[in-house]
């Protein structure tokens, strides 16, 4: 920083002002590309901007007129305006990245507010630049920056606070004539989808559906214009329009599949399809499957719609729980969605339809009348399949969970990429968590393996392995056994030197919290025994509980999740207290 500071001081009086300013911003861009955001912010972007403003830069962002008079005294048509706009945008990006580097989970309220201030500043910059068509590139870049920050905040549960900014980004894309071309339609549809998702996150699904339908209208309007005079290859434009339409249709289906059932009279409720008999029924078998077929022309698109309809940001992986009990119609729809997803994953729906249509977002291929999951361009998306299994666990759809696990695990074990090994470990942890969370509850009643569709030896071996896992979960006896298996498995996962195969921190947090809740009472009894700690441990055979506590503490340390939950401090303090009591015994 000092070296760069001295360079700027040394060369500023020797260079033309315009050249100096361009180099200043260019060096900032280079530093940002190598993730030196603080240096780029302080020694480049803000150094450039402070030539025009003597007060705090954030104070100028509060009023549009003050903003324009400070940074654009000669108007936005000035030859230096583009450089100024770029520096203003880059400054906000650096501020956001610096927040992420020190507080990725936005646990500090100031971190969240800083991100919101960056969004406000980006919006103000775009507002001033929007009337100038020659600055459309800046509007486009601004929408990307806003989307990036908003998606992060949405994951952190702040959808209500970022909705207005995503709406603004969408409107900007519609208001800039150069950005209305087909070339930018895919990005515009992505913004529309984000807005709809925000509404769903805010429990305002009707507005999410309305906005998605509005997006469909906008896409259709552009398609009509494009049909009149197309500058791109017909196949290319068709692909773009199909992808954009699919995104909007999925968001519409997300609400329509549930609301259509709510509107039905309870007397007209259909009886559930028995999974053992479902294999003999023709696709589509249920109201949900009929809606899928009506709205989507390929199994790939149907599978994507199922995933989106089941996804809910307010639902965590743990504790798993079914939909709201009092809404039986919703529970029926959820079960039907899982049943349809499993049917697609197994390939049975394709065998019944006797045809195959390729989609854009997910690709399927029919091989010997069976769907196969692949990591390449063809086949069921591995990521989508893994997500489906996790959703089944979250909803307590145990039959679907174990049946889908069988298919997905066969695929994962055949892959060498660390990404898939990580997914394999995560699914393994879920199978071990099920008997811990619901000891003795699960009873195997149905499996895809029962349908006899296994081909060769791989699927059969997968079936044997899956059933072995189920039997393991059903073994009666000391509940500590399941806890110890889960704890030692997680410990081995985080102990490997290959960081890229470690399970996601969210799953690790859930597992540790689960272990702590199961062991907490016993451990507190040991802790309260004071100087008689060793006697208590010996008399109550409590060594195992202390062992699990030690493993939990090691997992927290090795996976760097200590700052994600205040409860982890209690775990560490409990271990320290027990060790002190043992030392004093």
From TrEMBL:
Q: What is this protein called?
A: CFA54 protein
Instruction: State one Pfam family annotation.
Output: CFAP54_N
Q: Where on the tree of life does the source sit, at the highest rank?
A: Eukaryota
InterPro entries in alphabetical order = CFAP54
What gene does this protein come from?
A: Cfap54_0
Q: Name one GO biological process term.
A: cilium assembly
Record's signal peptide: none
